[in-house]
């Protein structure tokens, strides 16, 4: 009977104590979060409740398993050790994420309005730093787990001795992966591209949605995702419309008849922009940029605060101007001209009278022609 009650009492007491301590800790964090709403640290630390309770339970059981399981002390002890190492690594990652996220939130709150580009840069760096921290903690945790086995400790010397050769082989085999890894650090700290930037890559326009150490995801305007290696952005040219200031100038072109009313079009352009909320009010212009025998090219310049708004302004101006010309000045739209050409005026200001073919004198080669 004692062999059954003792494990139940020890395991049940450990679990109960873990639940009580976890509840008390969560209650303290909740009160701290309510007293300090200016920082999200205490609320983020509450996310670490599960790994925290696992660490407590594993530590309590690790200290009392010898008396409870005397016949299986090796297997139970090794299992509890592995659980303790894994949960501790999980807890460290959660705490580090809470601290880093809190620091970024304070920085973003202080600089969001003054320098949004720098905020996006810091966000990119924070994301990559957290990935590196998670990778380092994970590697350390796995190494610690492997070292709990005697066979792995015995093979440690040989593994260290061959580490140089293995590193060279791995570097040659994973050359592209290592290149992307270093390119990720270069992007993060070189301020080449940031999350939220509007970019054009391979003719595709989109917004940077995710940046990792090896790849970058661009969300296009039609909700597609383009995943590209980060080495692309360090080896090939690309357009970054958010570099520096996000303000942009856009163009709208029309091919119209030479009789198009330019002054009325300028007034209509001004009215369209005033009615468009996406226009930032900085500048606008309408000029003739080219001409052909049948049409002329009219260009409108408009401005907006970012790439999304400039697209809205352009389509609004294009549609509004075409509707204006179709309703009030249809003659200004391109057409095929089949009318007779205007006659050349005489010196006295009167046009020449057109002669019939019969009245024209007949001309013969080599003979003088008389005019009747």
Radius of gyration: 38 Å
How do the helices and strands follow one another from N- to C-terminus? HHHHHHHHHEEEEHEEHEEH
Beta percentage is 15-25%
Question: Termini distance?
Answer: 145 Å
Q: So what's the overall shape? A: elongated
* Largest sheet composition: 5 strands, antiparallel
Q: Spans with pLDDT under 50 lasting ≥5 residues?
A: 156-166, 168-175, 359-372
Give the averaged pLDDT, no decimals: 76
Structural class: alpha+beta
**Largest beta sheet: what is the strand line-up?**
4-3-2-1-5
Number of helices: 12
Helix content: 55-70%
The counted number of beta strands is 8
Structure report:
It is built from 12 helices and 8 strands. With 372 residues, the chain is of the alpha+beta class. Among the domains are: 2-111, no CATH class; 248-332, Alpha-Beta Plaits. The strands form 2 sheets. The chain has a 5-stranded antiparallel sheet. The chain is elongated, with a radius of gyration of 38 Å. The termini are far apart. Residues 156-166, 168-175 and 359-372 have low confidence and may be disordered.
